[in-house]
Design brief:
Structural class: mainly alpha
Strand content: under 5%
Helix content: over 70%
Number of helices: 2
Shape: rod-shaped
Oligomer: single chain
Radius of gyration: 37 Å
Distance between the termini: 131 Å
Length: 86
């Protein structure tokens, strides 16, 4: 007498077991999650690099402005109230 196949081994028309078919969406979701994570990390790295470049640019501009201000102050005539009283 023939025995019935176990439930886990019941095959669909495609020749794959039910458990194998159940694993496919999980694997697809895992792959998608990994791809999205890589895309997010790449976007984040690009943003951090852009922020770093902007910060360096702003620092350089501030240093240039400071040097120009100090240079202009050094070139001013040094007068005091006593110069006008004299």
């Amino acid at each position: 007498m023939a025995r019935a196949p176990p439930k886990a081994a019941i095959y669909t028309g495609s020749g794959r077991s039910a458990s194998a078919m159940a694993r496919e969406p999980v694997a697809a979701a895992t792959d998608l999650s990994q791809k999205m994570d890589l895309n997010f990390q790449a976007a984040l790295a690009g943003q951090q690099d852009a922020d770093m470049a902007q910060a360096i640019l702003e620092l350089t501009q501030a240093k240039t402005q400071q040097q120009a201000s100090l240079s202009a102050r050094a070139q001013m005539r040094k007068t005091s109230l006593f110069d006008f009283m004299g």
